[in-house]
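Exercise: predict the fold of this chain.
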Amino acid sequence: MDIPTLNILAIGRDSAILEVVQRLINSHEHWVATIVTTDKAAIAAFTQQRHPIVFVCAGVTAEEEQALKERLLRLDPSVTVIRHFGGGSGLLENEVRAILDHKDIHIINA
């Protein structure tokens, strides 16, 4: 049986923080994080593999976030782009689960 995977993209400017976000996401079975530090890398990752959830993390300005969100929505109108402020594994898990419940996102195979 093929187990579905939820791919989550996280973009931020601080590699150390992104590594924590990646670890927290990957600690959940069937969730896979892709972390990037540039908008260019975010677009590349997003076009190479479907990421129904994109977290915008530390160091990305509000203007950069808005521009990235607009671009990602043009590529996939169903994507959820949300600011992640940190706060540990419980908050991140709750954010993902709320998105999944609200949007009825179907986890897809990688």
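Check your answer against the key: The radius of gyration is 13 Å.
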